[in-house]
Amino acid sequence: MDIHKKIATEILLRNNAPIADFENLSPNNFHHILYDTYSENSPVHFQKIIENETLDQVSLFRIAEEYIKIIERDKFIKLTPLGALPKKVMIELYEKKFIDDEMIESGITKLWREEDCIAIMSMKIATQLAGLTKKTKNKLILTKKGLSFLKPGNRQQFFELFISTFADKFNWGYNDLFPEKPIGQRGWTFTIYLLGKYGQNFQHDSFYAEKYLKAFPDFVTSFESDSMWTDVQQFAHCFAVRSFERFLGWFNLIEIDKNGKHFWNSETKIRATEILPGIFSIDM
């Protein structure tokens, strides 16, 4: 074997060898997770057929469907002077009870403004980023693409566009005060992979944060230890809020057990729901 073939063989072997910090995925596998997310070459990709019964259980997507229907019904939504959804639309969507907001349900806040329910606010932004709605003269209207997704036969395509836009284009840091780094969002299907591997039973949210940090160690440098939290604990909190509470939880891909306490409580546990394998094919 000449030197060039030997080098090529060594590179091929190295790129396909399991890496412990990647949960024994190879560099090639991890490359597909990061840069070829939705192809069948990736260890995590959409199921070829996602049943309607599964989509019926995806809370944030169901809100998006109802939102599109409201705009179609009323022809447009007149926004507030600040460009937000009016109270009556917020109430109509929230009363569908697809997602309960902890602050609203506890009575700490009331649903007066768009920002009072960040799940609905995030959905609104994601649908616009997906090209389903557009703003004109302070009104929200449906685009041709948005109208096309009102057809039942396009429902899976609608879902895949919505979740991929939420995961890839909507800035998860928009809703929090954590560092402006794509913590949790970068390589988000690696978290799906971890849930497919370990999610049959409840695990502490820090269990997943630790494994994610091994794959993306530079993210911890965004935090500094203080008198209350270490840098790793702050990272884990950020990861859990963004990945679990405000993404996978909103899509009902996980069950969250807070043990009656706040999300950042150390006893918070995560388990995958039966919806996860109905949406994603996960190759172990």
What is the element layout, followed by pairings?
Blueprint: H1 3-15, H2 27-35, E1 44-46, H3 52-55, H4 59-74, E2 77-78, H5 87-94, H6 102-105, H7 118-129, E3 133-136, E4 139-142, H8 144-148, H9 155-168, H10 188-198, E5 203-204, H11 205-215, H12 231-248, E6 254-257, E7 269-272, H13 275-279, E8 280-282
Antiparallel strand pairs: 1-8, 2-4, 3-4, 5-7, 6-7
Helix pairs in contact: 4-7, 11-12
In short:
The chain has helices at about 5-15, 25-35, 50-55, 60-75, 85-95, 100-105, 120-130, 145-150, 155-170, 190-200, 205-215, 230-250, 275-280, and strands at about 45, 75-80, 135, 140, 205, 255, 270, 280.
Description:
With 284 residues, this protein is mainly alpha-helical. It folds into three domains: 1-35, no CATH class; 52-170; 176-284. Helices cover 46% and strands 9% of the residues. The protein contains 13 helices and eight strands. It has helices spanning 3-15, 27-35, 52-55, 59-74, 87-94, 102-105, 118-129, 144-148, 155-168, 188-198, 205-215, 231-248, 275-279; strands at residues 44-46, 77-78, 133-136, 139-142, 203-204, 254-257, 269-272, 280-282. The strands form three sheets. It has a three-stranded antiparallel β-sheet. A hairpin with a 2-residue loop joins β3 and β4. α4 (59-74) crosses α7 and α11 (205-215) crosses α12. The longest helix has 18 residues, at 231-248. The chain is globular, with a radius of gyration of 21 Å. The two termini are 34 Å apart. The model has no long low-confidence stretch (mean pLDDT 92).
